[in-house]
Amino acid sequence: MLCQTQFGLITSLGIIARFTIYNATLVAVMQVGVIVAGVLASGLWHKFATSSGMAMPTPAGLLYSYGMVGFLIPFAWLTLALLLRRSSAVSDDVKGLSFGFGILVLIALALFVIYADVSPVFRIMWRMGGGDDA
């Protein structure tokens, strides 16, 4: 059963997906959580790379060096989305799209963090025997 909600979002099974301040705050907190997890994981890679005498891969290094700037992303999205929600001159469809954009940003952040923190695993030459087989 599909139904249309107040802000133009289509839901199924009667689950109401609304653009409320509470939901927007939850999405922003999830974005912050993804950034924190990514920075912490890149810190582990930095410790491993420096103790092994290796160069840190670029995506993990970027996240390690400039991860704190990433906190501007949820702040900017939440500010813009709440300003759009409050404005009466903006249509309900645009308000719904701004909430959907926040979810899209969350997914993009999660994919980048996974790529940045998992890709170094595939660039390391793992030696199983511990021998000198260079």
Q: What's the number of extended β-strand segments?
A: 2
Q: Overall 3D geometry?
A: elongated
Strand content: under 5%
Low-confidence stretches: 11-16
Indicate the radius of gyration in whole angstroms: 20 Å
Largest sheet: 2 strands, antiparallel
Discrete helix count:
4
State the end-to-end distance.
61 Å
Give the strand line-up of the largest sheet: 1-2
Order of helices and strands: EEHHHH
Structural class: mainly alpha
The whole-number mean of residue pLDDT values reads 81
Determine the fraction of residues in helical runs and give it as a percent range.
55-70%
Describe this structure in words.
- The chain has about 130 residues and is mainly alpha-helical.
- The chain has four helices and two strands, in the order ββαααα.
- It has helices at about 20-50, 60-65, 70-85, 90-125; strands at about 1-5, 10.
- The chain has a two-stranded antiparallel sheet with strand order 1-2.
- β1 and β2 form a beta hairpin.
Sum up the structure in keywords.
134 residues, 2 strands, mainly alpha, two-stranded antiparallel ribbon
Question: How would you summarize this macromolecular structure in one to three sentences?
Answer:
The chain has helices at 21-52, 58-66, 72-86, 92-123, and strands at 2-4, 10-12. The protein has 134 residues and is mainly alpha-helical. Strand 1 and strand 2 form a beta hairpin.
